[in-house]
Give the backbone structure.
Amino acid sequence: MSVVTASARSNPVDAPLARYIDQLLEDVVADLPYDDVTARLERRQYVIDRLKLDFSKDAARLAAQFGIDETERRLDAPTAGEWIRHHCKTSRSVAYDSINVGEQLSRIPKCAQAMEGGEIGFAHLSVIARTSSALAKAMPESVFNEDEVLQRARESSAGRLWHYCLRLRHALDPEGVAHDQRVAVEERRLQFTVWEDGSLLISGQLDPIGGAALRTALEPLAQPMGQGDERCLERRQGDAVVELSLHSLDAGLVPQHASQRPHLQVTTSLETLQGLPGSPAADMEFSTPISSTTVQRLACDANIARVVFGPMSVVVDVGRAARVVSGATRRALNARDQHYQWPGCERTASWTAAHHLVHWVQGGATDLSNLILLCHRHHWMVHEGGWKLARSDDHRLLAIPPVYDYYARAPDTAPAA
Ligand SMILES: [Zn+2]
Ligand SMILES: [Zn+2]
């Protein structure tokens, strides 16, 4: 028996085939004007779908050969999916999806026909095939009602069809759906990569239900907030994750670890806190060194962060010092500032920090006359972002934007006064 090696099969294209394909690609859109891009796209997608369908038929035939006649050894691949992934230069999901569609075609002939007629796409067919095979596995003798699903496929996107198919599948095979969701939970992961500048790159995967919990928690926080909020959705979602984390620490919602309540912990010299020229950057756990402007914000409402002066200065744990806004003052602030915040900002008092109009490090008092509630984002905008706060004649709070570009140079701010 001749052995077919990987390298002998690695390039399936010869010159006549390439010429034929070139001609075909031209012929497919020959009757459409070059400027009619949408019609050309639709036509080309139809051709792609037809090719995928035929690809699936052969993929299923290959899969059927595995397990007999030593195919694994002959092709040097453990499964047909792995062989396709490697030799047809595609992804694992495409390989296994193709095999599955091919294997299910005898159960869903009308759907395949509808795809050949251009009524539905290959993406629809793939969703239907996945549902069909899941049901076939759970109940081998079950009859798949093709007409109903096909009608749905004609009316909806592949994404919506998947929702419909899941509901249908659950009605027939609830254990199977529960099993899939259990597996998806086991596959949850979250990875952090720290870049050179200390920024955190986040990647991961959540199951549908866990993902929904995260999105439900973040969505209200990621709404545009206050006047002139022009942040894009991705930026707002990034801000929302930080805000949720700060609030959880702030409100003591994170369980204690080794008898310590989790805090943002900053170690700084007094000079850095005062923003004096020549003072070093401060240290913060899990972060690269941070600027004095940020230290001032974190120390402003020391409920959020525990600030410890470094060895060069008198060691004071600000987390326990008198600058912390006392319970009574905070309650009075909450009552007063319920509707007296950043213009247009609707964060409730428990989601805010108490901002010192004149920072305590510069002698500002920790009492009602010098305190105002700001949500974490607007607090950041006042300290690091260079915005100023002022009161109008009728005692409304005014937020005055900075005149420089955030990214061009750092703000040379003293704390807002
Ligand atoms: Zn502040
Ligand atoms: Zn706000």
